[in-house]
Amino acid sequence: MLKNWLKIAFINYRKNWLSTIINVLGLSVGLCVFLLIFIHWQDEKSYEQWIPDKENIYFVENGNAAFGIISSSSYPEIFVSKEKFSEIEDATILNDWGKQKLSFGGNSAYTSGTASVDSFFRFFTFEKVAGNFQNALSDDGKIALSLETARLLFGDDYLNAIGKSIKNDSNEKNYVVTAIYKLPEGNTVFKPGFIYRNPYLEQSKDQWTSYSYNGFFKVKPGTDIQVLEHKLSKQMQEQDKISAKEFGYKTDDKKQTAVYLTPVSKMKLDARSDGISKGDKKSIMILLGLSVLILALSGINLINLKTAQASQRAKEVGVRKVVGSSKTALVLQFLLETFMICLVAYVVAFAMVELLLPSYNKFLSKDIKLIDPNLFIYTGLLLIVFSLISGLIPALYLSNFKPINTLKGNFARSKNGIWLRNSILTLQLIISSFFIICSLIIHAQVGYMMNKDLGFKGDQAIQINFKKGSWENNFNVNKYKRLKAELARIPGVKDITGSVNSIGNGTANASIVKLSTDTTKTAQTMLGGIDENFLKFYKVKFVSGRDLDWKKASDTINGAVVNETFAGKLGYNPNTALGKEFFTGWDGKKKYKILGVVKDVNYSGVNQPVEPIVYFNYDRNWVKNNMNNLQIKVSENDINGTLERIKEFWTTKAEPGYPYDFEFVDKQFAKTFEKFQKQQTLFTILNIVVLVIALLGLFALSSLLIEQKLKDVAIKKTLGADEKTIVWDLTKRFLLICVLAVFISIPFGYYAMNEWLKDFAYRIDMPVWPYVLSLVLLLILTFIVVSFKAYRATKINLVKYLKYE
Q1: What is the distance between the alpha carbons of residues 397 and 410, in angstroms, rounded to a whole number?
Q2: For strand 173-182 and strand 142-146, is the pairing parallel, antiparallel, or unpaired?
Q3: What are phi and psi of 509, to 5 degrees?
Q4: For residues 526 and 509, what is the distance between their CA atoms, to the nearest angstrom?
């Protein structure tokens, strides 16, 4: 029996070779797209699965009206909470301090460092290679090294590194090696080349509202996390009130601070804030959903083509039933035929994934490999389920044929068959229209972001970050001044400036300000410490007032320029804000006077709202030691030559031994678009895939249906109908289905894109033209595909189709 089923299957595959190829190709592409996005999702979910006690370790996040939800916590919030709440078993903090240069003898290692405390190793159980984790970070002079870093510094003698002194060239301090650890092999955001004790803990112990650390709690098993979150939130709200009383402003009872706990194993995707190297879960889930739609579209093609071929197999089914075949046997036979197509498509899809994976990894900046056995188990189950779903409808449809009708040969015009094919074709075109609409709107939004006035001109400007050192003796500000003076002498350097916040990297160091005349008016603002020429350097436009004058002591001591958003937060327009005085949280009782209001400068990307910011002289308080970059404008006449001269100076005099790295400010800001440009690219690719699958299916379906009407065409030609009339008669039903599908897709497309656009602080108004263009485009493509086959039908041999009449 099975042998006969296979023979029949291969006979039908060969007879309908075009639709078989289209089915395999469509299913392969659909499965390939789904698998690529699925393995990306699985890779993101696999972060921190290596931590043994991960179900009881939580990442601490804070949210309030001023900051939104942020990934950092204060020192007392973490460690006082540990002592105060019995549910918390242990606590730790960490900060990623970027790459720094360590040296020992003639060897050096340039690697990323983490500042933490001893409890770090109780949370993140790295494999110990040498030394002891207990008291490994008990004071500021101790350091633990990763195995890779230890090998770079000590070579093959790394096991004897414990107790030896190494130098951190970045801050000119010496450290004693206390432990060597091996980094986890699983996916993780914790990959420090070295770990040392955070040197600023002592001064942070009483700063409840200074959110400067990434905090983690280890809770006791069975802890009610919601109850603990409530307790922690109440504690922080009480501290907010104490701070408000000391500073003289009022808290908003409706927008109080809240504390959130996210499991460390879900932190990568589910952190409420930006987290630590957080993944883009929303985009992944959207793409996963769209890939499921593409897979469904492939299945719809299969169902539609199988049902369209029904008339060719109607007599076969009738004969099989007459000779005693049961309905169950027929269903199993047709399911087997579908499963074989799906199996071939599954193998081809994996081959396509293997070929595309290197490019996909480069696009995602990942290193995903097809080594997870669960992937094959999940996709194998998917293959079986997909085969059942896509094969069951045509199988039941074919097995329900009545022998008396099929043997008479009058099934081809069955109303049920026509209704089913039209419904499935409509669903197929709905999905296609949905993708076209969404793709066009995404293109419009990304284009809007790329062309939006950002408030600054960064042409021919580069930024170089220099290595921060100790705050002792004003290391950073003195280094900034020295480098600025030396770089200014390089031919081709037109101008140099610096700032605490760099464009494209967002803002930092927030504080509360209040008006000196009305203490009820407060605002959260960012500290914009800038050099004298910063606003001129970037051609930032003044809306009212003037720039800071470095020759006037009053300007450099308490003068300020604010942006439009800051003025608005305090209830003023650019003109009424001039001359107003305010107190800040970073300079105690000192008054700042608004001398000018400038247009908003976008630091973080146009998907984020512009933060209120106060620009002031960087060289007057602790802010000056946050200066760790130079922004250089080079002559447009010799850009490459000037960049080479800057590189030579940097690598030989400024920071010899360190990697030289710079970035054009425009490109640095453009990185804020990368996420959305990648979404645009992926959606465009998916849109092309959808259209190809849909049009291939439409071509195969129209071919089968038009072939069933060749006798009608022959009769019409005999009666004198011209080619245009015949083509229109064969095409118009498909065009009507296309119009219906587009109108059905419009509300789905509108809802999906409206939700997507909510992520943007600056967004386009929902346009009408993508919906109209979707209709026009689909009508044109449908007409081209169907009319091609319809025109071919008008060239038939009339005798061949009329000789039996």
Answers
A1: 16
A2: parallel
A3: 60, 70
A4: 6
Please state the φ and ψ torsions of residue 549, each to the nearest 5 degrees.
Answer: -105, 110
pLDDT digits 0-9 by tens, 757-773: 887 777 888 899 999 99
Phi first, then psi, for residue 304 (nearest 5°) are -65, -45
Dist CA 717 CA 722 (whole Å): 7
Tokens of 369: 């490999």
Residue from 236, 221, 219 nearest 62 by CA: 236
How are beta strands 613-617 and 522-530 bridged, if at all?
parallel
Per domain, the residue ranges of the chain are 1-46+280-412, 54-270, 430-447+672-805, 461-671
> Across the strands, what pairs with 63?
69, 258
Instruction: Please give the Cα distance from 305 to 308 (Å, whole number).
Output: 5
**CA distance to 364, 462, 503, 566, 749, per residue, from 669 (Å):** 19, 11, 6, 22, 30
Q: In the chain, pLDDT over 90 holds for what percent of residues? A: 23
pLDDT in the model for residue 805: 44
Contacts of 693 (CB under 8 A, 6+ apart): 26, 29, 30, 294, 297, 298, 301
What are the DSSP E strand ranges found in 551-702?
559-563, 581-584, 591-598, 613-617, 629-634, 663-664
Is residue 779 predicted with pLDDT exceeding 50? Answer: yes
CA 668-669-675 angle, to 5 degrees, is 100
